[in-house]
Amino acid sequence: KNPGGDLLTQCPQIATWIAEQVPGKQLVIGGYAYLDSALFVRLAIAMDAIISKVIKTRKNAALGFLCSPTDVFVIPKECYQGMQSEYKNQKPWQKLLKAILPKNMLVKNGQHTAKSDNGEEFYIVDGLAVAQGPNYA
């Protein structure tokens, strides 16, 4: 037999195996695999299913997530304000780079806020990198 598992075809088995690891200790799980194009959509769904089962099975499990430049996510107000400040105070080399690159690159990505029904304000980073092509945005 070969070590490993196929995330696309063995979701239940992989989730069960992961949930059984390090009993009695906190388990942190995340989905960090990649495939090109439509296969990535299938892979992301498979990883979500595995993570969901593990978190439901292990009461002390936690989700680890690495934000990438291809995500949209919520950030604390302080981070949002810091982004605004850094954008306003760009270094000369950053301004030069922005001036010579295509207009769809190095765009301001911390530009959105949203309010909930109860008035709470959320600060959103739109990290979709359209310059990378359709697999990323």
Biggest sheet, in brief? 3 strands, antiparallel
Please state the structural category: alpha+beta
Report strand %. Answer: 5-15%
Average pLDDT confidence is 87
N/C terminus separation: 38 Å
Got a strand count?
5
Coarse morphology: extended
Q: Give the spatial strand order of the biggest sheet.
A: 3-5-4
Question: Which ranges are low-confidence, i.e. pLDDT below 50, for 5 or more consecutive residues?
Answer: none
Helix content range: 25-40%
**How many DSSP H or I helices?**
4
Secondary-structure element pattern, one letter each:
HEHEEHHEE
What's the gyration radius in Å? 20 Å
Describe the structure.
The chain is an alpha+beta fold. Helix content is 36%, strand content 15%. The chain contains four helices and five strands. A three-stranded antiparallel beta sheet has the order 3-5-4. Helix 2 links the parallel strand 1 (27-29) and strand 2 (61-63). Helix 1 packs parallel to helix 2. It is extended.
Q: What key phrases describe this protein's structure?
A:
single chain, 4 helices, two-stranded parallel sheet, alpha+beta, three-stranded antiparallel β-sheet
Please describe the topology of this protein:
Layout: H1 11-19, E1 27-29, H2 38-57, E2 61-63, E3 72-75, H3 77-88, H4 92-100, E4 112-115, E5 121-126
Parallel strand pairs: 1-2
Antiparallel strand pairs: 3-5, 4-5
Concise synopsis of the structure shown:
The strands form two sheets. This protein has a three-stranded antiparallel beta sheet with strand order 3-5-4. It has a two-stranded parallel sheet with strand order 1-2. The chain is extended and about 55 Å long. It contains four helices and five strands.
